[in-house]
Amino acid sequence: MRGYALLMNDKSVMFAAEFEPAMLNGRRRSPRAPVSLDARVGRGGLDRALCRVVDLSIHGARLQTYSPIKAGSMIWLTLPVAGPVAATIVWSDDFVAGCQFQTPLDWATYEALLELDQNPRSMS
Q1: DSSP state of 104
Q2: What is the enclosing helix (H) or strand (E) of 111?
Q3: Is the pTM of this model over 0.85?
């Protein structure tokens, strides 16, 4: 979009901007799939706790945790198949949190996780 005018203190300021919508499917960049996967969450060092991934996309996940995680925290989410994945907690509400992966999952790993959810196995 170009040529917006902004009125500030009786002065007109012109600016130009170009933008492209960044989000698809509502607010999401990529579709999320409901899953039920056991995982581990760590905040650096040796503190690792079990959690459950309840939905998953290539860009992030929703987690059910056994202890609260603060929004803005950087975590290591250890997923079956994928191993440790760096992520940031973008929202948190008691024992449920949403995280965004620092590097998106590759499509093959994402599909393997979805398949694993349909054929449950223990995490090693």
Answers
A1: P
A2: helix 107-118
A3: no
Token output for 122: 């223990």
- Dump pLDDT digits (tens) for 14-48: 444 443 444 444 565 778 899 999 999 997 665 67
Provide Rg for the chain, Cα atoms: 19
Residue the block writes with tokens 């917006």:
4
CA–CA separation, 14 and 5 (whole Å):
5
Sequence-ordered list of residues with C-beta below 8 angstroms from that of 49, at least 6 positions apart, any chain: 40, 41, 42, 65, 66, 67
Cα–Cα dist 7/91, whole Å: 35
Cβ 53 vs Cβ 65: under 8 Å:
no
Residue with tokens 């996780």: 113
- Quick check: 48 and 40 in contact, CB under 8 A? yes
